[in-house]
Design goal:
The chain has one domain. The protein has four helices and five strands. A hairpin with a 4-residue loop joins strand 2 and strand 3. The radius of gyration is 15 Å and the shape is globular.
């Protein structure tokens, strides 16, 4: 019998106008405490983002999303948040915020393969 992993995931969203609460899904964060596992997958569809706002700073959004990935991976030169343990990094990345980049509330699930599940969720919810 193959082991099942309990995981949590959040959808990463870009809100070009925070006050309008309209968003575009751009990525996912998947976390499994038992396996000390965290992954960020994201993509930037510039055309889609620009359909919301022609003035949106897409380069800055890309830099911020790259920071999400570096924090998740624990890249040492990415600041003190990246040095936290995996559960704390996930909680920080998924904390409620009022900014152009936000995440959904975490959702739980069970799977046999964490990498494959991260890819599947990305395909279903973002791509």
């Amino acid at each position: 019998m193959q082991e099942k992993y309990l995981y949590e995931y959040s959808v990463i969203r870009v809100l070009p106008f925070v006050e309008r609460e309209e968003f575009i899904n751009v990525g996912i964060i998947l976390f499994c405490k038992k396996e000390n596992f965290i992954r960020v997958h994201f993509t930037i569809n510039e055309e889609k983002l620009r359909s919301f706002s022609k003035d949106l700073d897409v380069d800055q959004i890309k830099l911020n999303l790259e920071s999400f990935d570096k924090i998740a991976m624990g890249v040492k030169d990415c600041g003190p948040i990246a040095l936290l343990d995996v559960p704390e990094r996930f909680r920080w990345l998924t904390a409620v915020r009022s900014s152009v980049i936000q995440t959904s509330r975490p959702h739980p699930g069970l799977c046999n393969d964490l990498e494959q599940t991260a890819k599947r969720l990305f395909e279903e919810l973002v791509a």
